[in-house]
Design brief:
2 copies of one chain form a homodimer. Chain A is α/β, with parallel strands linked by helices. The first copy, chain A, has 13 helices and 13 strands. At the A-B interface, strand 10, helix 10 and helix 12 of A face strand 10, helix 10 and helix 12 of B.
């Protein structure tokens, strides 16, 4: 046992990074969180992760050479050569993560985006065990999607597959162009593009609630369960408060969730019609806040597509990414 | 050459069936169309296709045993066991096509739905040659979709993948439910579901045009290029007349195409965001009617998703299905 190989799964976030050190059979030896210093340069950042992992290996009484592979989930697009782009949480542009790690570590490196590793995690140890075809959707600050098709992550032609957050749904009348060929001004100007994520994400739910409460008079705010849950301060309200109130049957919260739920259900239903997945796994902070959210999305989806699918809540919470990163790097995983 | 194996590609439609007889290298020996007798029983129907193919083999001066494989594209869902369901063009319910053919033919049989074989055809000899990831959309009487992902047709968990025609887009205000949990009445009643296909298909374009012209007075109908192309009879107008008029820059036709084009572009753009395909191939009668349609959809898509893709017209027209059925059955195809 002492000489058996070790593997690490790392879920890199803009503020926190979760690390898991495990045996090849998946037995977890250690699991811990460190602050992400997003302002540092990539070499220091990823070098720091390696140092952290090696310290933990030593702390476990093992030689650092026992660490044979590292899987990383990253908040951005990972190109085929292991180059990270589109990572708004970091000030970097094109970051050659595979090269940076390869210069400092000679074991296996597996890199993927944060939603893909969350899907791998749910498939290995969570809600999608044994499922060969599923869609993973994460609803938190933003909206993420991952496609697990025919037993593997499908990344698309440019490693950008899964962007259900870019869905265009329920466009306003302004969307519709006024001649047969030119794209409508509202579309070209971006009024429509991005609307889905702005409404259906946790950020969107929180914003809708704050906008609503600032339109209410003082007595209505005082009577608002949502505002009470946020300590009486409308400006402090976020999606969690809305979902907590809705879970108690609060009418105001249920009404506020209507549009975000309709949007999310339409976006997922369209993906279900297109992909015919056996399952849709919904994770992220909003979905993790309680069974109400997933149940409401599930009920709507059934009315929006004739293609049957199981709509379930993710099971691994914010550990899914690190567990999936581990799943991606452990060889011959059972 | 005389003793080399022969293969057949057959595209079964509700009114016509296209047959191709070819050598293993794809060289076409014969290509012909027969009427589909959709009212007969499945045994007679598929037995008739076999008889037709064997007659043609004999006509080519070859022994019937030279026919080693038959690929069929069918207008419905083909389950894993080769059972055809959801085929509205036929009065049959669950048709065991693989069994019926297997009892009468001992060569290889390849079965797939009509859009999947069209995608295979375009990938082999048409617009998507060398492309590993693309979405095929056919716009005709209805709307069909096929996913060619990572070098092969992706069928989903229940062999129903590709149903972009079920997309829900631009729902009316009635879609939005009035509480946080129940699906909206308009959705549950089907007012929204199916709307995409009703508007964006060729059938939808023709219906929109007929509805418009019946609202016009006699002088407006007389002045309408669309009506003229239909021989002056508004009730005879179909999508072809609208597209032909639009190709001449006719303002009425361009205005009528606005909504169907917006819907189609949104449906495809959402699929592009989800799948990140290298290419979208648009085929079917509407797309085949001229470059205007595909160009207008292409322009809109570029404004509706940040994921880049090539939007191109299909090249094989209504031969794509039979060519793709051939592609599906020829072994070790280069």
């Amino acid at each position: 046992m002492q000489h058996s190989p070790l593997y690490a799964g790392v879920d890199v976030g803009g503020t926190k990074t979760l690390m898991i050190l495990a045996e090849q059979d998946g037995t977890i030896l250690s699991e811990w969180r460190v602050a992400s210093d997003a302002q540092t340069d990539p070499e220091t950042f990823f070098g720091g992760i390696l140092d952290e992992l090696r310290r933990e290996v030593a702390k476990q009484g093992r030689d650092v050479s026992a660490l044979r592979g590292i899987g990383l989930g990253l908040p951005g697009v990972i190109g085929p050569a292991g180059i990270l782009t589109h990572a708004p949480a970091f000030p970097w542009q094109e970051t050659p993560v595979a090269d940076i790690l390869g210069q400092r570590f000679d074991g296996a490196v597996y890199l993927d985006n944060d939603v893909n590793v969350a899907a791998l995690g749910e498939q290995w140890q969570g809600a999608a065990q044994g499922v060969r075809d599923f869609l993973m959707v994460t609803v938190g600050t933003g909206i993420g999607g991952a496609l697990y098709l025919d037993g593997r992550i499908y990344r698309g032609a440019g490693a950008a597959a899964g962007e259900i957050g870019y869905s265009v749904i329920a466009p306003p009348a302004a969307l519709l162009s006024h001649n047969g060929t030119a794209p409508p001004a509202a579309v070209a100007s971006g009024d429509v593009f991005g609307q889905f994520e702005q409404i259906a994400s946790g950020t969107g739910i929180g914003r809708l609630a704050r906008e609503h409460l600032t339109r209410c008079d003082r007595s209505a705010v005082d009577a608002s369960l949502i505002a009470q849950l946020a300590g009486g301060a409308p400006e402090a309200v976020n999606a969690r408060h809305v979902l907590a109130a809705a879970a108690q049957g609060d009418a105001e919260a249920l009404e506020l969730l209507r549009l975000p739920l309709d949007y999310m259900a339409i976006g997922i239903a369209n993906a279900v019609s297109l992909l015919n997945p056996a399952m849709v796994v919904i994770g992220g902070g909003v979905a993790d806040s309680g069974e109400l959210y997933v149940a409401a999305v599930r009920e709507r989806i059934a009315a929006l597509t004739p293609i049957a699918t199981d709509v379930v809540a993710a099971r691994l919470g914010n550990r899914a990414g690190a567990i999936g990163a581990l799943a991606g790097v452990i060889p011959n995983r059972v």
